[in-house]
Amino acid sequence: MTLRNDEGIAPSRQAVAGLLAAIVGDANLLAGEAVPPDYAHDEALSTVPHEPGYLAKPENAEEVAALIKTAAAYRIPVTSRGSGTGLSAGARPRQGGLVISLERMNRILEIDVANHVAVVQPGVTLAELGERTAAAGLGYTVHPGELSATIGGNVGTNAGGMRAVKYGVTRQNVIGLQAVLASGDIIRTGGKISKVSTGYDLTQLLIGSEGTLAVTTEITLKLHPALAHNATVLAPFATLDQVMTAVPRIIASGLEPHILEYLDRQTLTAIGQYQNLGLGIPPAVAQRAQAYLVVALENRIDQRLDSDVEELCGLLDDLGAAETYVLEGGSARKLIAAREMAFWAAKAAGADDVIDVIVPRVAMAQFLQRTDEIAHAHGAAAVGCGHVGDGNVHLGIFCEEATKRRHLLAEIFSLGMELGGAISGEHGLGQTKTDFFAELEDPVKIGLMRRIKECFDPAGVLNPDGVFGERFQVRAP
Questions:
Q1: Among 76, 62, 61, 64, residue whose Cα is nearest residue 12
Q2: What is the secondary structure of 281-334 as a DSSP string?
Q3: Parallel, antiparallel, or unpaired for β 381-387 and 353-358?
Q4: Cα(219)–Cα(229) distance, integer angstroms
Q5: Is 29 exposed, middle or buried (0-12, 13-18, 19+ CB in 10 A)?
Q6: FAD-binding PCMH-type domain location, by residue (predicted)?
Q7: Which of 116, 197, 233, 466 is most exposed by smallest CB count within 10 Å?
């Protein structure tokens, strides 16, 4: 069968499906109504699903390359997908387009103990990698909250999470990639090396590009020695300002917390109810507390950890904490697990959107105070928590009316950028924030990014609605 797009012949869906099935096999290609509805969306709260025309499940990079070549030849928009846990509609396909699901590319290819690296396919989940690395006494330290999330998805959004204050985000923990370009060419960047100064750093360019420049098919990750002993301290404060004053002091102390989180009272209550979490905080203390600080420490030696915890509690007392609660074992794990489920608690509470603005950490108090004022002015609410150690604020937005919510979000994003921050710290722009990005970001920077996109993907088939919105108008047959 020969389909010649250059003569203006539009192939039928059946013909395209036949071409794609020839690449991945009939069992791994679904078309039309046979595509399950889960592949039409991710976990973004503010978008409607888009039904793809095709769902392909490749097994290796060569199949991914053949799929992309076919899609590019007929201007079929391509969306690559992990487990669909994203919060910005980055995995929502173009209506009638092709979803390349990487769920079958889920092998851990190597745990290299000598070099402290793992080599994995993009469909490997954080939970699966955690199991394998723990057996080797090592760990992958990027934990954005959802353990069913895939490593490939984390690379796409430059995911962060609670441990970023000590270990950094995905960008600091990925040292090499294999990726398929829009041309179908397969490239490798970086590798099992700690640094490179040879030409442009394509690894870092592809991380966080949300599938708009290439499709990642293999990832080389840094691993760290697992520290056997850890403890979590929960400290209620009467005011948010006290929390924000405490953070730089804790960081400057040299205690090196691997988790440093802020939760407002509403969020702690919500996640406590959602997870049936009992922390033993007396009602009198809970009534006075407006904000909570969660600090987790780790050490390879138990006695040293005890000493660090004692020093931390003394410091928190000096900084005005109402009490300090040292949580160990099951209680600590439950609190951290509950914090990681904050999105689901917000969703269950009826949030209309979830955002993740990042600002310099010294500006967090001002950002949160002014955000609260902005929300009240719109008759709305913005409540949440954040990675206070690095200034990443996660807010559940409660504002049902879409037009009013859009104005509210524009003001919040504008405030974050005014304070030296950015629209998204780790969720990515996806498709939910592209309009705000276009309105608020420096047009010179956006123009440069567009030219990079056009260089990598001149036909505009790779996630064409991501980052820039509907800038690249390609059509699906």
A1: 76
A2: --HHHHHH-SEEEEEEEEESSHHHHHHHHHHHHHHHHHTT-S--EEE-HHHHHH
A3: unpaired
A4: 29
A5: buried
A6: 47-226
A7: 197
Length of the chain measured in residues? 477
Tokens coding 39: 């592949």
396 in helix, strand or coil? strand
The string over 431-442, giving b where at least 16 C-beta atoms fall within 10 Å of a residue's C-beta and e elsewhere, is bbbbebbeebbe
C-alpha 216/C-alpha 68 separation (Å) is: 12
> Could you give the domains of the chain?
13-103 (3.30.43.10), 108-225 (3.30.465.10), 229-419 (3.40.462.40)
Tens digit of each residue's pLDDT (9 = 90 or more) over 233-292: 999 999 988 998 999 999 999 999 999 999 888 888 887 777 777 777 888 888 889 999
Question: In DSSP terms, which residues pair with 187 in a beta bridge?
Answer: 179
d(CA 462, CA 477): 16
Closest residue by Cα to residue 471 from 424, 431, 422, 444? 431
Give the bridge partners for 395, in sequence order.
355, 384
pLDDT of residue 474: 46
* pTM (2 d.p.): 0.93
User: In the sheet that 78-81 helps form, which strands lie side by side, from edge to edge?
Assistant: 29-31, 54-56, 98-101, 78-81
Closest CA to 408 of 416, 399, 420: 399
The secondary structure element, H or E, covering residue 120 is strand 117-120
Three-state SS for 250? helix
- Tokens read off for 2: 């020969």
* HSE-up (13 A, CA, CB side) for residue 335: 27
Of the candidates 343, 342, 358, which has an alpha carbon nearest to the alpha carbon of residue 392? Answer: 358
